[in-house]
Amino acid sequence: MIIAIDGPAASGKGTLGKRLAAHYHFRHLDTGVIYRAVAKAVLDRGGDLHDEASAVAAAMELDPEKFGDPVLKTQVIGDGASVVSAFPRVRAALVSFQRQFAAEPPGAVLDGRDIGTVICPDADVKIFVVADPAVRARRRTLEARARGEAADEAAVLADILKRDERDRNRAAAPLKAAADAYLLDNSQLDIEGGVRAAIDIVEAVRAGRLRD
Ligand code: DC
Q: Quick count: other Cβ atoms within 10 Å of Cβ 189?
């Protein structure tokens, strides 16, 4: 079984993905980390994030061993990921890694921007997570502060809005809900509430209570 979770920055899709995977004993891939790792590799080499050739080279040499690096979580790298991920050739270089991950038993949860639309269009369940920008900015700010980073909520909100705009309006695999995705509005839900709502969607699909 493949569960695809898409949504904008800081909508809570990563936490939901992790929790759903644990619940069903599936593997989990936060695909944002892949683009973040590409951005970091470009910067580490002193390259320019806006240079497609540098970003493609970094994508082709992707090292999943480095996905756990805490630096990948920072706002600078997230912003860089939003830039490199707009290059079609960068995206193309990363498709097979994601599809292979999704295909391995017993099942997988992938979260990102284009999982339900491009990477796994035949996913068994697709969930599109949304939340108010102000709520997302609050959560991101608290997370950053918990990591010891100085985060200004207004700046975080501006970054989120800029990233949404770039991710939604790029030509290659823009952020959008698949036609057959279920919308989950996370604005008023805490983590447990969001997880319950997501499990309810998966169970309803499995029981055939929702359309395929
Ligand atoms: O989910 P995130 O904040 O870690 O993602 C970082 C950036 O990576 C995001 O702004 C756009 C890009 N991304 C993407 O283009 N496609 C994905 N499947 C996941 C992330």
A: 18
pLDDT at residue 177 in the model: 96
128-to-6, 41, 48, 195, 198 alpha-carbon distances in Å: 5, 29, 32, 13, 10
Ligand 1 atom having least distance to the Cα of 9: 3
- Please state the φ and ψ torsions of residue 168, each to the nearest 5 degrees: -80, -30
Amino acid residing at 148: G
Residue nearest to atom 9 of ligand 1 (CA): 82
Query: In this predicted structure, what is the pLDDT of residue 75?
Result: 83
Amino acid, res. 188: Q
Among candidate residues 90, 100, 126, the one with its CA nearest the CA of residue 29: 100
Best residue among 36, 71, 113 to mutate for probing ligand 1, ranked by most atoms within 8 Å of CB: 113
**Under CATH, which architecture does the 2-211 domain have?**
3-Layer(aba) Sandwich (3.40)
Q: What is the edge-to-edge ordering of all strands in the sheet holding 108-112?
A: 27-30, 108-112, 2-6, 125-130, 182-185
Q: Residue 209: is its pLDDT beyond 90?
A: no
Instruction: Please state, in angstroms and rounded to a whole number, the distance separating the CA atoms of residues 96 and 118.
Output: 11
CA of 209 to the centre of ligand 1 (A): 31
Judged against a pLDDT cut of 80, whether residue 130 lies above it is answered with yes
Measured CA angle at 105 (ends 101, 107), to 5 deg: 75
Distance CA 158, CA 163 (A): 9
- For 131-159, the pLDDT digits (tens) are 999 999 999 999 889 988 888 999 999 99
